Amino acid sequence: MYRIGIDVGGTFTDMVAVDGAGRVTIAKAASTPEDQSLGVMDGLERLAAALSLDRATLLAETAIIVHGTTVATNALLEHKGAKVGLLTTEGHRDIIEMREGLKDDRYNLRQPPPVQLVPRQRRLGVRERMRADGRTEIPLDRASLDSALAALARDGVEAVAICYLHAWCNVEHERETMAAVRAALPGVYVCRSSEVLPQIKEYDRICTTVVNAYVGPVLERYLTRLATRLTDAGFSGPVLIIQSHGGVSTIPEAVRLSAGSVLSGPAGGVAGSQYAARIVGHGDLIPFDMGGTSTDISLVVGGEAAIASDRRLAGQRVALQSMDIASIGAGGGSIARIDAGGVLHVGPESAGARPGPACYGRGGTEPTVTDANLVLGFLDAESFLGGQARLDRAAAEAAVDSTASALAIDRMVAAEGIHRIINTRMAEGIRLVSVRRGVDPRRFAILSFGGAAGLHVTDVARQLDVRRVIVPRLAAVLSAWGMLASDLRCEIARTHIGDASSLDPDALRAAYRDMEAEGRARLAEAAHGGPIHVRRSADMRYGEQIFEVNVPLDGLDFESPDLVQQMAVAFHARHEALYTYALRDQEAVLVNARVTAVGELPSLPQEGNLASGRPAAPRGHRRIYLGGWRDVPIYAFGELAPGQAIDGPAVVESGTTTVLLRAGDRATTTPVGWLDIDVAALR
Amino acid sequence: MSIAVDPITVSVIQHRLRAIVEEMGEAMLRTSYSQILNSSRDFSTALCDPEGRLIAQAEHVPIHVGALPFAARAVHDFFKGTIQPGDVYLLNDPYRGGNHLPDLTAFVPVFDGDRLAFWSINRSHQSDIGGATHGAYNASATEIFQEGLRVPPLKLYDRGVRREDVYEMIVLNVRHPRDFRGDLAAMIGSARIGERRLTQLLQEFGSETAHAAVEAVLDGAERQVRAIISEWKDGVYEGEAFLDDDGHKFTDIHIRARITKRGSDLEVDLTDSHPQVVGFINSSFANTHSAVVVALAYLIDPDTPKNDGAFRPLHVKLKEGTVVWPRPGAPVTLCTNHCGQEIIEAIIRALAPACPERAMAGWGRRFRIAVQGVDPRTSRPFIWHLFQARPGGGGSSAGDGWPGAGEWQAAGGIKFGSLEVHEVRFPLFFRRHEFRPDSGGDGRYRGGPGGELELVIETTQPAVANTAGDGVTYGACGLLGGADGKPHSYWLESEGRFDRLLKTKETGVTLHPGDVIHAHSGGGGGWGAPSERATEARAHDVDVGFVSR
Question: How far apart are CA B53 and CA B59, in angstroms?
């Protein structure tokens, strides 16, 4: 039986099928943004052809499909979500627009205020109020609720978000309101904050709940359509959706918690990186996914990807657990420009897919990173994308010349400059991502994937004093492949606030027990029959702090009478590890209790080692510019034999990526055919 | 003297300098201890050269930036010839380059071989700095000695070893020694990260190239700013702004800016401003320079590097004995807000005819309240600062003002946090907190609305409040025909008593259990004539309820 991974990106839909022996087959189809399921069905057709099967046969022999989708992401980025109404506590309907008082971009005072996902006239106050200790201050007023519901009905909303103050500790009013919405507005998508994010801090909760309502109906329509198409085409197994936290969910669960899918796309890349960490036996990786317009950077530590809960997307806070991915608005399509002071910048403007870099010959004239790479000879005009496209060298030179003449420098110096500046930005991006967590990047290996990464990664590593770079053979489809190795996962959190001296251990134990039961029940709903692993953790801080630290509690004895003290000890140690100091004379405060329930899926069969053979000879030579023109050997990635070493300067090319080795860099081919590069030190 | 550096290296080094100050800021945010630092982010990180020229700064608190060079020069001049690697220096005195006393600054020298090459700097607003009242804002102060501990240029670490006597002397004089120690450690750690990264940069590029590139970065910023200014029409421009009062005997205190614009230079003459006053709205010399720099920074392009080069076109004229340059000894704590903000306002009003598309209408003013009492649930004392009910942002050629975006000198940089968490931690009940209709000034682009807060005091014994702010008489200014935003209106509701208007500069206001503070904050100013406002925009104002009819 096959397993199929499907990753829908902005330009391409990537398909990966893995058979019982771990053999990998890949296919690519053009993405279809108006209805992503069309591109998916087309891709399945191509995948079947690559296996010499017809689509129905392939689907009949497929046990499971794992899917990463950008439908929720795009709805949010492009403001194409549902028409949402918000029911909230009377007197507090502006929480979401107040943004806790913050405005980014400090020195830009000529900037229109942000467009609201829910305009103020559809944010309706309902007369009710809970207290911070769970007592009812004002009972839910039905007349006020009914008039709000009538207003939403008149407005024809497609979705309703419910968020009342202190619903983190008393859910009664939200529950009653949810029932009333269902009765009054049948067919309308509805969700409440006490289900989406049952945690203290109203801005996080309201924002996440509104995003959930905003993307929910769109995601539901798409996934329903996709499921129907797959069933009609002969597929009868489960379709699992990769979530922002890197685990997978069933379609009903993904729709219920749709805000958990807003990073479904890039999360696939991180899931792939976790899988790659297992394959190369190196648990500390910096996944570096450089594409045309943006670059995603994250951290895998000890084989586990870093998780965050303070993500923002399109200006919206989504406070659900999510892969901690930093996106830099720069990539191969980034445009070089010179400011009025004569300083060269690369990005954030990008030529995108249309018109694309000047060398694509689609009307672009501004110099991009890709144009510079072509002028430098790093890219081959004839064999770009495995020969599918021809690049226009003259157009690239003309574009780079515009930069050169503005700076009164030589063309080659300008091209090198563009290349160096983008590398500097990438290195600083990695430094901020790693150092922000107190992590020294030098002990990591950079995992290079995405089409544009290979030409830049060794130099980026050098700037960071990182000595090892790994390039998977399937670098371009790592996301689709890696998501097949993900397990079912649900994240349960509950605010259980108090300081270590006053918490009741029995109540705490009961809270964790309830959450664990909820996690198991959700996995049972997904018809999961395999093993289940439960992980417990707690968000804790010192009294006056505002950033909580997530403390894993797995080694603790939960039945012990000094459970709370053990948690405090674990917190001090974690704080010290992250921020260099602990304040052991001070009280540790527990804010959120967390349970992760993982339903283990059958493990992905691993691809076998390559047959050993004689080291491959270069396919040819090319002149490239490395401070001066050099004739360097060009190798085909797919022809390299296990153990074969290549010394830079050299170029390794495949149909989807190109890797540049500079003098002193040495790449060794691993048993499965990946490149393991020993990066030369900065001279 | 300097060698020619290729433009690519200059660009790389400019990006690197910016990354260094941002990394210093990240470290500070993550490790600091006080709410005012880790939540409200009231700190700045910067790099200066030995002459005190600003090389790079992170985008944190605009009002800090223009003052740092004065402080760096004060430290450098005082310790000239004795500065060693591993040293750490402190300073907060507003008469030697500080903004005001709570803004303590740490300096770490960066060496290039045996030569002092840079200063790595962290300026952070302390939650307390001693003095007569908690939290440093003392409206009753008539001299700086009542405002807190003054720190002249002072050596805290001598070649890597902390001077324990000096350290304990400072810690002894503040109210929360535990927080203070933690915050100071974070400040020094942040400055040392800058030291480490600059040392790497010097090694990587070589001393000569690095220094030449820094000169080129400064020159580049200067060219960028001059290119913008030279587009404006030459002439002499005048602008004026008013403060309500100083909390003592002065009212309607004016700041007057006379700006001569010729070519790409701006002379900003503030000598005709009000004589210095009794209360804490006097602005220290460095703070005034900083406010002038902020005004220019808001008018140029947002992504222009804010460094010494960018501000070379500015020439500031002040007169000692005025509210913008008081004689030593005068209290100044409120000046980062007021009159700092009125200096910005006078300059932007003056230059609005020269660059109407760039000038924005006024952002709201600050009105803070600090409450001190006992929490009946825990019997513990508490101190709470009001950050809710943010005033509105001003309109501009780009569109309406931001709702509830805060004050002009912080421009949306200060966070108020979660009401739910406040209710868990303090005996306070937030009955209502929404935007204030009709508070934004009318105009082609309307000012953003301020906020309305109803806050119930749930102590069982009386609590005490202090206030510090301005703007109940004067609202945020409208521009180019736009109307002013509505001023603040704060009052106290107490059962069995008449409602009592709160003044902006009071100490010792009694709050009885069950009292309600009503805080209605001012809106932003409008930009352009109201007659030019689009009909659809007016309809939208009413739909969303920012305008009541």
Answer: 17
How is B330-347 classified by DSSP, letter by letter?
A: ---GGGGTTTHHHHHHHH
A103 → closest Cβ in B23, B405, B546: B405
pLDDT of residue A422: 94
First-to-final CA distance of chain A: 52
Distance, in Å, from the CA atom of A534 to the CA atom of A554, rounded to the nearest integer, reads 9
Which chain B residues are closer than 8 Å to A547 by Cβ? 30, 38
Residues from chain B contacting residue A546 (CB–CB below 8 Å) = 35, 38-39, 417
Q: What is the mean pLDDT of residues A510-525?
A: 91
Task: Report pLDDT digits (tens) over A335-364.
Answer: 999 888 788 899 888 887 668 899 988 888
Task: Give the C-alpha separation, A612 to A618, whole Å.
Answer: 17
pLDDT digits (tens, 9 = 90+) for A609-621: 888 889 999 999 9
Residue of chain A with shortest Cα separation from B396: A110
- Greatest CA separation for chain B: 78
| A500 and A585 fall within a common domain | yes
Residue type, B440: G
Closest CA to A264 of A527, A486, A520: A486
Q: Say whether B33 and A544 touch across the interface (CB within 8 A).
A: yes
Q: Say whether pLDDT at A603 is over 70.
A: yes
Q: Is A657 a member of any domain?
A: yes
For residue A101, give the nearest of B8, B394, B416 by CB distance.
Answer: B416
pLDDT digits over A557-570, tens only?
Answer: 999 999 999 999 99
Same domain, A522 and A669: no
| Contact check, Cβ <8 Å, A101/B448 | no
Domain membership of residue A316 (yes or no) is no
Domain harbouring A251, CATH code: 3.30.420.40
| Residue B184 to chain A, least CA–CA distance (Å) | 13
In a domain, A290, yes or no: no
Whether residue A119 and residue B416 make contact (CB cut-off 8 A), yes or no, is no
Please report, rounded to a whole number, the percentage of residues in chain A having pLDDT higher than 70: 97
| Cα separation, A85 vs A87, whole angstroms | 7
Indicate if A103 and A211 belong to the same structural domain: yes
Domain count, chain A: 5
Q: What is the pLDDT of residue A387?
A: 66
Residues 6 or more apart from B400 whose CB is under 8 A from it?
Answer: A112, A113, B440, B445, B446, B447, B448, B537
CA distance A574 to chain B (A): 13
pLDDT in tens, B374-388: 999 989 888 888 999
pLDDT over 60 at A630, yes or no: yes
**Is the domain of A530 the same as that of A672?**
no
Q: Are residues A71 and A84 both part of a single domain?
A: no
B419 contacts A202? CB cut-off 8 A: yes
Q: Do A103 and B448 touch (CB under 8 A)?
A: no
Mean pLDDT for B502-507 is 96
**Mean pLDDT, all residues of chain A:** 90
Note whether residue A368 is domain-resident.
yes
- What distance in Å separates residue A370's CA from the closest CA in chain B? 18
Q: What are the tens digits of pLDDT across the range B526-546?
A: 999 999 999 999 999 999 999
Average of per-residue pLDDT across B101-115: 96
The answer to whether B424 contacts A200, with C-beta atoms less than 8 Å apart, is: yes
Residue A353's pLDDT is 65
What residues make up the domain containing A204?
80-215
How far apart CA A40 and CA A44 sit, in angstroms, is: 6
For residue B228, the tally of other CB atoms under 10 A from its CB is 19
Closest chain A residue by Cα to residue B306: A107
pLDDT tens sequence across B410-437: 888 888 889 998 999 899 999 999 999 9
Every domain of chain B and the residues it spans? 7-222, 360-549
State the Cα–Cα distance between residues B502 and B247, nearest whole angstrom. 12
The pLDDT assigned to B1 comes to: 42
